[in-house]
Backbone:
DNA sequence: TCGTCCGGCGTTTTT
DNA sequence: CGCCGGACGA
């Protein structure tokens, strides 16, 4: 029996409402995960609802994993078995693996990321008359939007989004058609297709939707404010036979509209699901009240929102600070000094985060932190599977699985260089078109198309054939190592980069790739097939490929990341840097005359990450693209009546310090200066 | 086939 | 300022 007495009244009400539509409006730090994990535990343990009938969907594998672990903590492993915790995409893939043949694809489809997408669209645009006049990015964005509306290439011309007068729309139509055709021919689907095709499956085959809906009689959706229209349609399909839908989210933290998230999903939940119950979680267990007061004040400027007021029992003497800095180097130095002070007072660096609007802002901090020997870690940036060498190896694995995948095949045809260049490729592409066979089949059947290249072609197809078998017989990491060796991949890396540092980094990427295969095998045993491995990597499902269990205990490192990446996390001390006009709100949002409320929400997300201390900074001048540009405080802070909410201090002078502090600071400052001179005196 | 040079451009990104 | 993609020449 699970006791719900540890929940507050609102949380408890949310956990006990099981039937019918339910919206849990969970403010930042209000114990959302706690509430939903207790809700599930309650359903299983107290109400004896079958595990198999419960589905919880989140956006990230990390969130899904955390939920699973916490439920196991409540129920134990045995009782938690049979619950489905998925991401939208992993759920889609799971369904498509079983059903995709109904849509005319084969079961071993490849999954394409946005780089692959872009490559095919570029090709499509090239083949379009006067394709040069069009910006591929705009077309790609249009297609992305169409997919998110559930509009396929065939429906486009009749849709409200198609303007017959607009040449761009004609180009888009052509590219969309070409693109989707190619994908099918390659037996590939892109990230959007995972949802698009699942929804199509549900629409074209309502009996399939019915079957899944009957299986999952209780559905929970996390971060509901971030769902897009396709995800909404997917949810509708899954609830086609019942309406036991519980969604959890916070409209004030909706920051992904640029990716197609539609905030109206959460704003009009009751209209979409009549009879819905709404529970607000407003007590915050994270931040001291002064920080929450500032957060509330900032977000109340937005008009179209569900009214909420976060409150906290935690009092503190700290008032959020707003510091003005001279420029980006100064900003980094002052913060670095503060962190050094914290460190020498015995403070833990894992308690500190530096948050910014864009990744480029991390650079000056990196430099200064390195110089002052402050350990740090940067979250975000390039994804592991997006690194070139990893993509190359993944392409090999993909082709071994799905030789129809022309894109991946073309990627590796001449990697490492084996004298099969664009001329030869052209010939084979022509051949494959003539005979209506895949590129791989053309290579395999006609190795002597150009007698000069015959050996190279045979070598290549030989590798693929051989490794189909190798991967069957040997373990995943063994087979990959052998592949790396056989194709001379390390030697290829060595000669591809001049700097030893680059070579080492890339070699390490390859090693890490092999290691992740080892871990994958260790965790998945018999399920550790090549296909599952490639799929997991693509879906960023690193839960057992990356080292685990350091989530609750942070390393002794300062964490740096974007406001976006910080959603859901918390830190004792938060530095929000570059709180400036044209950064937050971002200049493109201002320029386009767009609604800036999402930028304000981003500011709100940043503020609500802080538990004890919040310091916001802005620079009077910032170096942008090599030019010094004057900057001003963000309107989000400047527009407020700041008295009592936030203390404005000018860090370019010592005016904010006591005399003693200023003296200490100057001493340190001049000492640094002299150190600097010593270094420079070498010249 | 492959390497070099030039010009354009520059947010955020859970999959 | 620095990266990436396309053009062009060896």
Residues:
């Amino acid at each position: 029996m699970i006791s719900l007495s540890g929940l507050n009244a609102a949380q408890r009400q949310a956990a006990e409402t099981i039937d019918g539509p339910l919206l849990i409006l969970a403010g930042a730090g209000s114990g959302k995960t706690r509430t939903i994990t207790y809700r599930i535990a309650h359903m299983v343990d107290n109400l004896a609802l079958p595990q198999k009938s419960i589905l919880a969907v989140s956006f990230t594998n990390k969130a899904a994993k955390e939920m699973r672990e916490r439920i196991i903590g409540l129920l134990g492993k045995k009782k938690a078995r049979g619950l489905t915790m998925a991401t939208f995409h992993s759920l889609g893939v799971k369904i498509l693996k079983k059903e995709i043949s109904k849509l005319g694809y084969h079961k071993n489809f490849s999954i394409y990321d946005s780089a692959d997408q872009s490559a095919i669209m570029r090709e499509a645009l090239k083949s379009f008359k006067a394709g040069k006049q069009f910006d591929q990015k705009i077309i790609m964005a249009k297609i992305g939007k169409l997919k998110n509306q559930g509009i396929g290439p065939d429906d486009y011309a009749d849709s409200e989004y198609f303007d017959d007068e607009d040449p761009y729309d004609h180009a888009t139509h052509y590219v969309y058609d070409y693109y989707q055709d190619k994908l099918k021919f390659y037996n590939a689907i892109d990230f959007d297709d995972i949802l698009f095709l699942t929804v199509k499956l549900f629409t074209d085959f309502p009996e399939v939707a019915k079957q899944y809906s009957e299986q999952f009689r209780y559905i929970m959706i996390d971060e509901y404010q971030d769902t897009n229209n396709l995800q909404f349609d997917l949810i509708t399909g899954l609830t086609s036979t019942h309406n036991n839908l519980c969604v959890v989210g916070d409209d004030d933290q909706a920051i992904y509209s640029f990716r197609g998230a539609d905030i109206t999903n959460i704003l009009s939940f009751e209209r979409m699901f009549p009879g819905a119950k709404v529970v607000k979680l407003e007590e915050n267990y994270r931040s001291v009240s002064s920080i929450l007061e500032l957060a509330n004040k900032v977000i109340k400027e937005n008009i179209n929102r569900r009214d909420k007021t976060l409150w906290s029992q935690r009092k503190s003497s700290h008032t959020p600070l707003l510091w003005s800095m001279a420029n980006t180097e100064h900003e980094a130095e002052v913060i670095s000094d503060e962190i050094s002070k914290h460190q020498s007072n015995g403070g833990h660096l894992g308690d500190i985060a530096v948050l910014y609007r864009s990744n480029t802002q991390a650079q000056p901090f990196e430099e200064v932190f390195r110089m002052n020997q402050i350990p740090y870690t940067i979250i975000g940036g390039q994804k592991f599977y997006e690194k070139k060498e990893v993509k190359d190896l993944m392409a090999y694995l993909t082709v071994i699985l799905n030789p129809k995948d022309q894109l991946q095949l073309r990627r590796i045809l001449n990697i490492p260089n084996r004298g099969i260049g664009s001329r030869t490729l052209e010939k084979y592409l022509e051949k494959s078109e003539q005979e209506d066979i895949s590129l791989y089949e053309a290579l395999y059947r006609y190795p002597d198309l150009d007698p000069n290249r015959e050996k190279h072609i045979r070598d290549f197809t030989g590798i693929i054939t051989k490794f189909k078998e190798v991967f069957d017989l040997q373990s995943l990491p063994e087979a990959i190592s052998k592949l790396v060796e056989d194709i001379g991949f390390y030697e290829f890396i060595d000669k591809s980069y001049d700097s030893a540092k680059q070579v080492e980094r890339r070699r390490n990427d390859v090693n890490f790739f092999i290691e992740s295969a080892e871990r994958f095998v260790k965790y998945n045993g018999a399920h550790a097939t090549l296909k599952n491995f490639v799929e997991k990597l693509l879906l960023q499902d690193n839960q057992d490929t990356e080292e685990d269990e350091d989530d609750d205990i942070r390393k002794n490192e300062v964490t740096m990341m974007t406001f976006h990446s910080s959603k859901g996390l918390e830190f004792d001390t938060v530095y929000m840097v570059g709180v400036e006009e044209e950064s937050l709100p971002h200049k493109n949002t201002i320029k386009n005359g767009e609604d800036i409320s999402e930028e304000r929400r981003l500011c709100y997300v940043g503020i609500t990450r802080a538990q004890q201390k919040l310091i916001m900074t802005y620079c009077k001048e910032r170096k942008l693209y090599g030019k010094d540009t004057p900057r001003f405080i963000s309107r989000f802070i400047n527009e407020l009546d700041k008295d009592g909410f936030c203390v404005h201090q000018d860090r370019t002078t010592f005016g904010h310090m006591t005399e003693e502090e200023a003296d200490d600071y100057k001493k340190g400052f001049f000492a640094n200066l002299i150190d600097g001179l010593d270094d420079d005196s070498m010249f």
